[in-house]
Amino acid sequence: MMKYKIVIISFFLFQIVTAQEQLTLEKCYQLVETNYPLAKQNSILANQLEVQTEAFNKDKLPKISLNAQATYQSEVTQVPFSLPNATIEPLNKDQYRATLDVNQLIYNGNVIEAQTNLKTAQTKTQQQQVKVTLYQLKSVVNQYYFGILLLQKKQELVTAKKVLLLEKIKEIQAAVKFDAVLPSSEQVIEAEIIKINQQSNDIRYEKLKLFNYLNKLTDSNFNEDTVLVVEKSIISQEGSRPEYKLFELQNQQIDANKSLISKTNYPKVNAFAQGGYGNPALNMLNNSFETFYMAGIRLNWTLFDWNKTKKEKEALEISKQLIETEKETFELNINSQLQEVNFEIERIEQQIISDAEIIQLREKIVLSAEAQMKNGVITSSDYLNEVTQLFEAKINEQTHKVQLELAKANYQIIKGN
């Protein structure tokens, strides 16, 4: 009879649940990846790369500059001899010049491309770091999600217990009318129902707190009526953590940096043109204002830099070694965590098997206690104690089942699925 009632209660609760909003763990992950404030950095970094690339490419365009100067000097160039029938006027000590200069890059060893490649590598590394941070938030989501799920399971069982006792109190009230049981039997059940209401209230506020944390993390508005649904987890041995991609991109960034350093000592060729107006102009012996111009090609090549480039590359190679040690340490920690979670999963699975056996025995005990109470062999307090132990066993079972799903979800995250 009792099993039939519990089935009815469970079916009633299921009908309520299906009418409410449902939330999956995967949806929470997706909401964090899109709504968490840090997620906005990926598009910001992409925009920054685009702007910086445009800035690098501006170096390929001609550079135009206007220059002007006025000077006064203590000595000027003089001709140390005189010419017959000719007068050479000395230069003015105040001199003036204004020029318009144009410089056009012809070749610089592809430094601009190397700068662009380095900036691209840096951006990809930063974007991957954002992904790593967001991925690590999945563990926090798991704590909130399964915490709420456990509270919902407890609430279902507490409600089922209350419904059962409300039915039982009706039978006791009828028995009290016929003096079959003492009025105190009814009061014992009523006190337990009040206690259940207190438990429900505590569960509700605890759920509200966890929902508040989850909403902040996902930038959502889930409420206490939202039902969390968990599909059975399948442990997969495949997976790849985003940290591995980060290590790879960090190495690529170092390679791009080495390439840029190599190109800084390449020859640089520029074409230039200059037009101006001044006194004196190009003819230093002409002491008057006049226009002038010149054009040409300029070469600059650093032939020896005291092995500065070599040392900078060696320093970058050392950075690669540091990245490799970080990767090895990460792998060691991951394997240790996976082993620990595996032990936890096996332990909880054994507990669940024991929980089923305990519940089966407790249900038989409650059925027996119910019959004994009706026959006056035991009091309602004795019966209530057996009912409470049955539902505590059920709560323990649900707790272990939720803990198992949490452990499996954590395993998937550690593995990289």
From TrEMBL:
Which GO cellular component term is one of those annotated?
Answer: efflux pump complex
**Compartment list:** Cell outer membrane
Q: What is the lineage of its organism?
A: Bacteria, Pseudomonadati, Bacteroidota, Flavobacteriia, Flavobacteriales
* The name this protein goes by in its record: Outer membrane protein TolC
Pfam family name, one: OEP
User: What does the similarity note say?
Assistant: Belongs to the outer membrane factor (OMF) (TC 1.B.17) family.
- Gene Ontology MF: a single term: porin activity
Q: Does the keyword Transmembrane apply?
A: yes
Q: What UniProt keywords apply to this chain's record, in alphabetical order?
A: Cell outer membrane, Membrane, Signal, Transmembrane, Transmembrane beta strand, Transport
